[in-house]
Amino acid sequence: MTVSTLPKETQPPPAVASMPPLQHELPVTTAPTPAAKKKLTLIPLIFLIYFEVAGGPYGEEPAVQAAGPLFAILGFLIFPFIWSIPEALITAELSTALPGNGGFVLWADKAFGPFFGSLMAVTGAVVVDQSKWEAGYMADAARTISGTWLKVWIEIGAVLSAVGLFEAQLSSSGYQLLGMADLGLLPKFFALRSKRFNTPWVGILVSTLIAIGVSYMSYTDIVASANFLYSLGMLLEFSSFLWLRWKSPQMNRPYRVPLRLPALIVMCLIPSAFLVFIMAIATKTVYLVSGLMTIGGIGWFFVMNVCKSKGLLHFKSNLEDHDLG
């Protein structure tokens, strides 16, 4: 993962280095050590991006069972245009305009303040009974098409996919906690990095413990709850993107989505409708888990404010870690 610094145009000259930073500037992570300059090489970055956005077709069998192979394939072909492309454009603009660890946590903090920043080809064809397409049936389908050898490889791929998906999510969550510590939303020790790998080991450890804590739930409830919370985060990300375009049109954006605000609203409305639909069809267990976690996040925000005001824990301030040249 890269460690970001302020762009040149936001750094005051040495003559005014003693002046306090502007209110709109975000705290960033800088470090004078050579380890902080390490970056992911191309191949690991490709794998990280792949597992962040896909990870393989595993788990898509219920789509075939519910809608049939034709509509499932059509959905896989159409969905990238109404979801993936808008999300990629939004990420490209906001990540270059607001570089730093934390992702949409920084974007929501910039748009709405610290409260919202803390919440945030066909190779074979056989006749198969559509009702059999349950989770895990892909391996059986592979055996029907090409034999046991393909089933074995599909199963090996499923294991590697699960490991890759978990590692990618762990990386993302760890750096979001690091970004929240940089913003002063979490205690300073959440920003601690490994001396060997320069990774946020505290954030990774906390994310791992949370994953272990919810492992007693059924797989379906875990996925549904994760999707519900992810939907809330994505709605906040879309809102931050539109709000910053409206309220801060002159903000420096190395990459800018080449659309006007009305077109951007339409672009965000389509994926937002899917997010609302996912949330509307959730089960009572998902509502309970997601509600408790959301309430817990809100409560945590106010507890951290009390700890900060009374000096019970050490936090980074907006004046820390700025490279003032």
Automatic annotation (TrEMBL):
Keyword flag Transport: yes
Protein's UniProt keywords contain Calcium: no
GO cellular component, as recorded: plasma membrane
Stretches for region Disordered: 1-22
Membrane-spanning parts: 40-58, 70-91, 199-216, 228-246, 258-281, 287-307
Keywords: Cell membrane, Membrane, Symport, Transmembrane, Transmembrane helix, Transport
Chief localisation class: membrane
Subcellular location: Cell membrane
InterPro entries tied to this protein: AA/rel_permease1, RMV1-like
UniProt-recorded Gene Ontology molecular function terms: polyamine transmembrane transporter activity; symporter activity
Membrane topology category: Multi-pass membrane protein
PANTHER family linked: CATIONIC AMINO ACID TRANSPORTER, POLYAMINE TRANSPORTER PUT1
Family: Belongs to the amino acid-polyamine-organocation (APC) superfamily. Polyamine:cation symporter (PHS) (TC 2.A.3.12) family.
Protein name: Polyamine transporter
